[in-house]
Amino acid sequence: MKEYLEKLPQEIKDLVYLISDTACREDTAVYLVGGFVRDLILGVKNLDVDIVVEGDGISFAEKLSVRLNAKLVSHKRFGTAVIMVKPHLKIDVASARNEHYPKPAHLPIVSSGTLREDLYRRDFTINAMAISIGREAFGRLIDFFCGKRDLFEKKIRILHNLSFIDDPTRIFRAIRFEKRYNFKIEPLTLKILKESVKLNMLHKVQPQRLREELILILKEERPLVYIKRIQALAGLDFIKPGLCLSKKTYQLIGSLKKQLVWFKETYPQKRPIDEWLIFFIGIIDSLTIKDTQAICKKFVLRLGEEKRLLLYKEISRKFILNLCREKVRPSEIFAGFEPLSYEILLLLKAKYKGKAFQKHIKDFFEIYNGMRILISGHDLGALGVKPGPVYQKIFSKVLNAKLDGIVKTKDEELALIRKIAKIH
Ligand code: CTP
Predict the structure, then answer these.
(1) Nearest CA to ligand 1 atom 5
(2) Ligand 1 pocket, residues with Cβ under 6 angstroms
């Protein structure tokens, strides 16, 4: 595989050679493994360098992190460590291990093992290859389970029949790799996957683990394709029993993607959007507030995520109808949209296609959201207004007047606060 390694981007190639050199110095057997090897063969960029050490992975990671002068986080219980090389580049280090599942769908019990055992515990053949980068045979591919053949034949194949029973989150991983690389889950794997769905295996997994897999899926390039496949193969009962997406919801999710592309192209300077959250809200669009609350709790969503979800759910028909009118004062548009997050605004823009509503949201992003008043607390103080919550009220009145075009210059703002200050 030397020729593949040679083609890596320079910063990753340097890293691989440094790991190799450290392995030689320490006289330790070290291998590139997992998704990194898969993507190396496919020619896909991958900035997570995954290595397995036959022996003490944490001690090797410590030595490597010193040479790299990089931060190290280790998990003694699992014999793993992560080295943060750069914000976008990390090395996952693991000690070669054997896994044993005490109960289906539970986390495995880990013990040290050989490289073969370590590869055998993995999800799919395409993720179970290794490349030696130690002293012996630098660049040799180790492929016990015909992963390279499956890569070329574009097949997702499990290594043993209990794979989905041991770890049902692999159901989602199979779909993720299938759709990401345009592969096919091969027939026997598909049959076993369906059987494990029938055995309700997804309900036996800790919901947070399902949430993590779902988030990974919703972060992929074309989430709609993945969601359709999940509904077809596994159903969406794992989110809420009986949840089944209608054509309308699929259209909404499709439209969400378009809105995201529009937003990123039009406002590259605005803050990044939590894209997965938008799609997740889209998926559960038909559910009630109560069901949504229960889902937030079950999946242990973060407070900020839960807040945005519930805020969206609480938007009333009256609110929408009001903002669907053609003639709405800018200050009203601002008051309506300002408390909502960008994620919710994009959801609303995807859902309510009326011309006037679309214009109001665009105007909000383009004009109203960035509008600032020119007066300050200093000006209010000069007029003898005592500092306190009243300042905020006055600023808000001036901003509304500015949004509605009643005041334009600083002098006009000052004239207005003189008027308001008299009242206060
Ligand atoms: N793995 C597994 N079973 C899982 C999760 C991970 O066997 N449920 C193994 C696979 O060999 C995988 C490796 O651990 O290649 C690393 O996992 P992860 O980083 O989650 O996935 P990647 O394969 O690197 O995929 P991605 O490109 O999505 O990061």
Answers:
(1) 123
(2) 34-35, 48, 50, 122-123, 127-128, 167, 169-170, 173
Residue carrying structure tokens 């004239």: 415
Domain boundary among 126, 154, 182: 154
Q: Whole-angstrom Cα distance, residue 296 to residue 298?
A: 6
The model carries a pTM of: 0.89
User: How far is the centre of ligand 1, averaged over its atoms, from the C-alpha of 170 (Å)?
Assistant: 9
pLDDT in tens, 3-58: 999 999 999 999 999 999 999 999 999 999 999 999 999 999 999 999 999 989 99
Q: What residues make up the domain containing 131?
A: 2-154
Query: Total domain count for the chain?
Result: 2
Per-residue pLDDT, averaged over 322-329, amounts to: 92
Q: What angle do CA 167, 173, 177 make, to 5 degrees?
A: 150
SS3 158: strand
Q: Which residues contact 240 (CB under 8 A, 6 or more apart)?
A: 284, 287, 291, 294, 295
- Tell me if 260 sits within 8 A of 346, measured CB to CB: yes
Domain contains 206: no
Span 114-126, pLDDT tens digits: 999 999 999 999 9
**Final residue before a domain boundary, out of 120, 136, 154:** 154
- The region, left, alpha or beta by phi > 0 then psi within -120 to 50, assigned to residue 71 is beta
Catalogue the E-assigned strands of 25-64: 29-33, 48-54
